[in-house]
Amino acid sequence: MRSETVPLRRLQAFLDESSVQPLAGRFLVPGTADADIIFSDTPISFMMGVNAETGVVMDKHHPLLGVPLQGKAFALRKGRGSCASSAVILELLYLGTAPSALIFREMDPILVLGVLLAGALHSKSIPVVQIEDDAAWEKLATAQSCKITSKGLMIGDEQLPLDRPYSQSVKTSPEDDRMLRGEGYDLATQMAMELIVEFASIQGAKDLTTVSQVHIDACCLVGKTGLLVPQRLLELGGRVRVPATCNSLDVDRQRWRALGTDPDVSQFASKIGDAYLAMGASMSFTCAPYLLDSKPQQGDQIAWGESNAVAFANSVLGARTQKYPDYLDVLIALTGRAPVMDCDLDEGRRPTMSFHITVQLLTG
């Protein structure tokens, strides 16, 4: 038997007062904002593209180079990776230097996850909106400011109504439901399952699946939250429920003194690895988990972070994994459950493009 759990209770309560019909787009994360607009049709990666302390755009090839995003409604056509961008928006929210709202033309699940986690762990959140109407997006391109309320997006005197993310509920197992209620589980596992179900609903996933292993990408030193997140989950009783490996750290844990790296940075980065080891992850610290003896087999359902590993797993190994945002991989490790989407499904793995290559052999 399977039950259905409708997530996003916060969002439903937030929108109860609204009776307008959806036109312009939908909420991804609820909230309110009143801010000047920074608009960009050019995708950007928050990782290495936005300063994680100041919120200033630092991508030298981006038109917004040098523009501060703090306190602004950032209207961005779409993100451009990396998996660690979720860690950057989390750090910005923690420090108070984040945009006051994110408005996407194409939904960016990586940044959405970072906002959800900031709300759950630090009670700091911002509204995230996806615009689905071309005319509404064009209005944002020329507008100076906007307001986001429970009734929608207001540009000048014009109200653009917004809908809930998805009406589709996520199917959960009886064990999932016990995790959601915290029955026999620690607070870290309960929080992890709540966030997984909420994220799955925002993605449009209809189901969760059990994974056989996890590769945690969220090991890099983005800022203070890089350590605060695993430490907090550890304090709440978090332990991995499936075998988990760790991505490379920003420091050589054994040789940083001999290499002459900064002691404060080195010790801080090492503590990130220590926290995941304390949660039960194995001491791997590699961005190539496919070289380990624990590599998955064809058809295995796994949850790997790290872009190159995801590509290798889905192609060469024939395993199945999405490209997960940093920290969603950690949440999956704590529960053993992941959203079912895209390349997890047979239809999501069918090729849509073929290449025909003609080779001319050179003879001596």
TrEMBL record:
Presence of keyword Transmembrane helix: no
Keywords: Iron, Lyase
Location of the Phosphomevalonate dehydratase small subunit-like domain: 44-129
Pfam families to which the protein is assigned, alphabetical: AcnX (PF04412), AcnX_swivel_put (PF01989)
Top-rank taxon: Eukaryota
Residue ranges of every copy of the Phosphomevalonate dehydratase large subunit-like domain listed in the record: 173-357
Record GO terms (molecular function): lyase activity
PANTHER family: DUF521 DOMAIN PROTEIN (AFU_ORTHOLOGUE AFUA_6G00490) (PTHR36577)
Name of the molecule in the record: Aconitase X catalytic domain-containing protein
Organism: Fusarium duplospermum
